[in-house]
Design goal:
The structure is a single chain. Helices cover 84% and strands 0% of the residues. The protein is mainly alpha-helical and 158 residues long. The chain folds into two domains: 95 residues; 62 residues. Helix 2 packs antiparallel against helix 3, helix 3 packs across helix 4 and helix 5 packs antiparallel against helix 6. 5% of the residues are buried.
Length: 158
């Protein structure tokens, strides 16, 4: 398994450093949740944007979901870092080659399903909302461009 910056994780200390580097990600998730909730409330009550009840609940739910996920992940990370035995078990579980291959294969299948879903939504939704076709096509282009850039960068590092 490789850490955030591409260094290989071989020992418990390497894994501890890897988990410590994940802490800012949890802070960004937490901040994104707060910003989502704040913008939703400001839009409805200060800027007087007319949001349907469904959309207000949807945005608020996403914000709360991000907050809860960030708190859960931070607590789990802290709990793992606090126990040497738990740290060792997690490192072994997360660096096992079989688990890494399963995760890689699962991501590829999920990505293919997502791209097919976007394509179908683009075809069907575009019949009634042409802007939807442009937005969804933009997402596919974003994926393709980011994939090409990531492949080029990573192929130079490995």
């Amino acid at each position: 398994m490789y850490g955030v910056l591409g260094n290989e994780i071989l020992t418990d200390d390497d894994y501890r450093a890897y988990l410590n580097k994940k802490k800012p990600v949890y802070a960004v998730l937490f901040l994104a949740g707060i910003i989502t909730i704040l913008i939703t409330q400001l839009a409805q009550f200060v800027w007087k944007v007319e949001l349907m009840d469904y959309m207000h609940g949807f945005y608020t739910g996403i914000g709360v979901g991000l907050l809860v996920i960030a708190i859960f992940l931070y607590a789990r990370n802290r709990r793992t870092l606090g126990s040497p035995e738990r740290l060792r078990k997690e490192r072994i579980k997360n660096t096992d080659e079989r688990n890494l291959k399963i995760g890689q294969k699962s991501r590829m299948i999920a990505l293919a399903a997502l791209l097919v879903g976007i394509y179908v939504a683009m075809l069907i939704g575009g019949l009634w909302y042409p802007i939807l076709t442009k937005v969804l096509a933009g997402l596919v282009y974003l994926f393709l461009i980011s994939y090409c850039i990531a492949y080029k960068v990573l192929s130079g590092r490995m």
